[in-house]
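Sorry, explain these tokens?

***
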Amino acid sequence: MAKKLVAYFSASGTTKKTAEMIAEAGDFDLCEIAPKVPYTKADLNWMDKKSRSSVEMADKSIRPEIADSNVDVSSYDEIILGFPIWWYVAPTIVNTFLEKYEEAAADLNSWQVTNCLSSYVDDDGMTHTLQTLTRESINKFWNDIKYCPIPSMADGGSDRTIKKELHPQGFTVASGEQENFIQCVLHMRRIETMHDGQRWCDIKRYGIEVAHNRYGLATDILKVGDLRRAIQLPSDVIDAGLAANPR
């Protein structure tokens, strides 16, 4: 049976009540994401641009400290995350909870060991051994790669890379370490879900532009907001009279 955790951040108590109800109904473990320095009423005054919450939400790099917790989130199969909406997104303290890069690197390394060859020989006869993924190696690898140009500007697409510019839809991705880890996860998902038809979900979620090369014609680029990115309704639904998604 899957082990589940309900983790929540609650400033006023509303989210706490909901989290407790979910945990009780499902017999799940419960964990509060508590700030090391509790928020005061003045801190939560969203009308004051100098209040603590306003300052934190204005600077996407801020990560408020979390009080010590004995909960080992890596031991859970599923985590249900609850939080209030601040300035249309999750409070920055939620990012503090999620951004545990040492643990993330260990998880990514486990995936690599399971899904990749431990070594291989290239066309020149050189043997390459699978390297252990660490926080440092992941950051160095993705920092050193240039974004893939859309469309390719070089003959044969020699300027293409596996690093795509991200334009996330409905959420933000901080440049630097957070993006590096997301790029790594997206690349692994691209490999694992190859031919499964699931890549399109990541393309839409992260606003990744797609270019289709057409012989004798200009490159067709599906930009963010292009109506063709919408998944079309099933033909039987359209035949029943519901208007198709515009193209």
